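in:
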């Protein structure tokens, strides 16, 4: 029952992580640990489905300025992280309670089902390395079967992502100069050039040192996520417990 701590911290990610660790340390087998996840808010006690009906954007955040009392809860992104954490370190999750879910594209049950299906063929080692990218509150899905590559952490402990999908998701125009081996991404008044196999990028012509290199791997181009997206004004947060990257303006 990893919820009902207090209003502003009703059911934070750390509480689920700490709860799993507590029971593991007490000798409970991981397969027997099921993390409870709430589908209601405090102090308003509004249900997730009612919050989403008020505003679909409330599906992706953990707070809504409802009246007469505000709502702190778990949105889809937090619940995805908890599910991923449970898949790696525990036996599963449960929802309290499931009839507070929606029956549309914002459904938490459908999100969990989709996550299980996406990762179902992964070995335990591969699952432990699985990375989720959330951009502007929406999951940026990378599927192996698409053939465009999936994110990974390189030897420098930096996240590398396939070139095109994340940059086009923020509206950047992307080109690759094969002869000079340089990626160019342009959005609004920002031009970022990323040379392959070099620890630098260029932002509007100014050289910026990067802590890892863009590479070509299995005939796919991968860019260092943090360096490139910070050049476009994004903030990057890494949640190690669920191996989730949060990109936001």
């Amino acid at each position: 029952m990893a919820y009902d701590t207090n209003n502003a911290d009703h059911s934070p990610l750390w509480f689920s992580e700490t709860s799993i660790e507590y029971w593991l340390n007490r000798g409970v087998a991981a397969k027997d640990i099921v993390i409870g996840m709430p589908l209601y808010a405090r102090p308003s006690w509004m249900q997730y489905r009612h919050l989403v009906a008020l505003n679909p954007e409330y599906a992706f955040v953990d707070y809504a300025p409802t009246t007469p009392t505000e709502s702190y809860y778990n949105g889809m992104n937090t619940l995805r992280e908890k599910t991923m954490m449970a898949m790696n370190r525990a036996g599963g999750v449960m929802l309290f309670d499931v009839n507070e879910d929606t029956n549309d594209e914002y459904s938490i049950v459908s999100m969990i089902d989709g996550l299980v299906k996406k990762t179902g063929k992964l070995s335990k080692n591969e699952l432990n390395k699985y990375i989720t990218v959330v951009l502007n509150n929406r999951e940026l899905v990378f599927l192996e079967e698409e053939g465009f590559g999936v994110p990974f952490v390189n030897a420098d402990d930096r996240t590398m992502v396939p070139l095109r999908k994340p940059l086009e998701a923020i509206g950047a125009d992307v080109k690759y100069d094969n002869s000079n081996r340089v990626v160019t991404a342009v959005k609004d008044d920002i031009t970022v050039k990323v040379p392959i196999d070099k620890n630098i990028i260029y932002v509007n012509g100014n050289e910026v040192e990067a802590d890892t290199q863009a590479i070509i791997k299995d005939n796919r181009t991968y860019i260092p996520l943090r360096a490139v997206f910070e050049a476009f004004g994004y903030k990057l947060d890494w949640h190690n417990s669920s191996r989730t990257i949060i990109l936001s303006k």
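note: Residues 133-249 form a domain with the Copper Amine Oxidase; Chain A, domain 1 fold (CATH 3.30.457.10).
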